[in-house]
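QA checklist item 7 of 12: single-chain prediction sanity check.
[x] sequence parsed
[x] length recorded as 290
[x] structure emitted
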Amino acid sequence: MASNVNPTVRRRRLGQELRRLRELKGMTAEEVAERLLVSQSKISRLENGRRSISPRDVRDLCGVYEVEDQRMVDGLMEMAKASRQQGWWHAFGDIPYSVYIGLETDAESLRVYEPQIVTGLLQTPTYAEAIVRGGSPESSDAEIEKRVQVRLRRQERINADKDPLRLWVVLDEASLRRVVGDNNVMREQLEHLNEMAQLPHITVQILPFDVGAHSGLAGQYAILEFADAADSSVVYIEGVTSDLYLEKAPDVQKYSLMYEHLRAQALNPEQSRQIIADIAKEYARGSGLD
């Protein structure tokens, strides 16, 4: 494994290999769990990369699957050791969506639909703070600051000089109209959004109110794609107490098709930049700057 691959991706690749070995053996996750005297959910979490896996877990699973090639067993155990290393986000303590951050850090491209707010990778510091504070009123100032700093650190992927994350964002018009913070915060945010939208690796489209019903009414989601063919695409749906990760091909295809419909219904990039600029001017007038 390459040393620059982050631990989330290591766990995911290792889990895929363990699933492949189980399927070659013709066993179900339930049967494996019974053999090892563990829960079926543990086997599922190990295979989907959501849980840290120890070299001992790998050794035990390889024993159940009767893997005779010791070099393969040793290689998988080394992958398990590497997967227990920490990514940059662990320095910030307990982050609820750390699995997503690990995937985003390694993704080659990201497609996002946001119905309510400007997506995190394109937020200004003041807008991000207002979002976090409003969404978590019970959090301390220190916790809010930590979450904002994590969000800003994530933005390094789209600001990188080499191989930046390719980002395509469809925003509902509501995300531009919802006043987060105050008029000055919104003006600054929309001006920043338009500036970022002019970068060659970033595309922003606005879905106007007059579109009516559309395929994104169920809510926010993101589709992550990776350069390595071994890493399947992932649909990420953020929840309040838990998040959902969809990796099965039919699920990814369904969400990808929904996204194509959204892109087709949304304003084109040039029209989108114009409506963003127009609404930014409205906020400027509202704050007495125009």
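[x] summary fact logged: The two ends are 56 Å apart (CA to CA).
[ ] second reviewer sign-off
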